[in-house]
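Translate sequence into structure tokens.
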Amino acid sequence: MSMLALMKAIDLFSREKNVIMRERMRNQYNPAEYLCSKVIAEFPLDTLYAIIFASTLKWRTGLRSSLKVLTITYSLMTVAGVALGFAIGGLAPDGDTAKAAGMPIMVLMMVMGVINPSGVDSTIIQPIYIQFLKLISPIRWAIEGLCISEYKGMEFSRKGYGLFKTIASDAPKMGAMAMVQNGDQVLNALGLQESTWEQSMRMLGRLTGANILISLEKVPSDK
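Result follows.
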């Protein structure tokens, strides 16, 4: 969802640059008015696609997360992708450069956003540039939010009887996800035990606002 929204935003925003420049030279509108109209035109449609996707996912998979949580998460992730597309389109000198840069940037955001399924070692300090790339990745915050909403409070252990119950409960936990009994253990292994879904959504909102401000600064001037 986020990648499709990003590439569409890059394509439209970069192709409109020449038109914007001519209209700005005639003082037809200012950068804020243009960007506001883009947000009003683009965000609702992209959000609708995200809501349809989240509703279908909930219906077909029966995820524990509520439909409200899924729709908000996917909607904010999609909107953040659109805003990132605006920023890339505004920073690039032309449409071809924006399209060429958009896909590698999105792939980088996806790689930085993926959670290591083997768990997180809190003793390892990552390089500053890796921390920064993770901070600005909308995929990272969406994945973390979905994991938190899905796993927090979930119980995995089955109601066994006799010897099986004793063995399962007393078995050593080898590896991050081996023999986990509840979702809180999963979040602890992933390093998300102190995080909340609301924090992830706030970060998506901040990324959206930051990218819109960047694109606002890069709207072609009337000079």
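Note: The CA atoms of residues 20 and 79 lie 22 Å apart.
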